[in-house]
Design a protein that fits this description.
It is a multi-pass membrane protein. Pfam families: BPD_transp_1. It contains nine helices and seven strands. With about 290 residues, the protein is an alpha+beta fold. The chain folds into two domains: about 55 residues, no CATH class; about 210 residues, Orthogonal Bundle (MetI-like fold), CATH 1.10.3720. The strands form two sheets. A four-stranded antiparallel sheet has the order 1-2-3-4, with no helix packed on it. Strands 5-6-7 form a three-stranded antiparallel sheet, with no helix packed on it. Helix 8 packs antiparallel against helix 9. The chain is elongated.
């Protein structure tokens, strides 16, 4: 009886005619092995079955517990389940719809106040002197830092959440409008005056059209900030919303729902940005054309 060696497996080769069981595996990668034993090597895991046959399991790569990072199929399965059956007595579309409503309402009121304020600061030295320090002071303050103050002011209901989103959009829109007005070339204003235009006509046909590109850029930034802030706003006593889903799921360590919520927030935010880019191309076709 002699020993024969492959790259990894060592087995004995029977030359005796009286032996019927044939070759028998005796070692794996230089390590003796017997029936029922397993050996791990760089190539994978080897084991011997009850009949002496070899079983091989290739390396499966880095493994992680589902509580830390669930597999994609688990997230997709959970998405289908919640889309069909809902979550905490509300459908998935109700949760996303409430979040979207809060964002749109907060952004709308922020733009409604911020754009006129920005125009006033860009056109009037008096307004700029009074409000520019306030705007520049509030601009770097993160909206999340205002949550305790908003709760004191407006409570934990819908009004408080919309006020928080309003404050998140207000300063961005004010700065965008001010920057748009300040960026209007004075030569265009002088040309309009020389043609006999009134102040109202200059405002309507010169300042507003030339400031709209900056305002749309600010609107995209403000909408993104609002969409990110709504998740934090819904962490405080919200009954419906994407942020509420994430918060409740995290308490019960349902990582698949948390990741599902994060993905949905990212997809909707990306869709909103694409929609605003399209609106900018349609409403401000003269952007970047001087």
């Amino acid at each position: 009886m002699t020993a024969s060696r492959s790259t990894t497996i060592i087995f004995d080769k029977n030359d005796e005619t009286s032996r019927k069981e044939g070759a028998k595996i005796v070692a794996i990668d230089g390590t003796p092995i017997s029936i029922g034993q397993s050996i791990k090597t760089a190539a994978g895991q080897f084991s011997l079955t009850d009949k002496g046959a070899i079983s091989f399991q290739p390396p499966s790569g880095l493994q992680m517990e589902p509580i830390w990072l669930p597999p994609p199929e688990a997230v997709v399965s959970r998405l289908g389940e919640i889309a069909k059956s809902g979550y905490r007595d509300s459908t998935l579309w109700e949760h996303l719809g409430f979040s979207l409503f809060r964002v749109i309402a907060g952004f709308f009121f922020g733009a409604l106040v911020g754009i006129p304020l920005g125009y006033a600061m860009g056109l009037s030295d008096w307004f700029r002197g009074w409000f520019d320090p306030i705007v520049e002071f509030m601009r770097p303050v993160p909206p999340l830092a205002l949550i305790p103050l908003v709760i004191i002011w407006a409570g934990i209901g819908e009004t408080g959440k919309i006020i928080l989103l309003f404050l998140a959009a207000l300063w961005i829109m004010a700065i965008a409008a001010r920057s748009g007005v300040s960026g209007v070339r004075i030569s265009k204003v002088h040309a309009a005056y020389s043609l006999g235009a009134s102040k109202a006509q200059i405002m309507r046909y010169v300042i507003v059209p030339n400031s709209l590109p900056e305002i749309f850029t600010g609107a995209r930034v403000a909408m993104g900030v609002c969409w990110g802030t709504v998740v934090a706003a819904e962490l405080v006593a919200a009954e419906k919303g994407a942020g509420m889903m994430i918060m409740v799921a995290s308490k019960f360590q349902l990582t698949d729902i948390v990741i599902m919520g994060i993905i949905l927030i990212g997809v909707i935010g990306f869709g909103i940005d694409i929609l605003m880019r399209w609106a900018e191309r349609v409403l401000v076709p003269w952007k970047s054309k001087g």
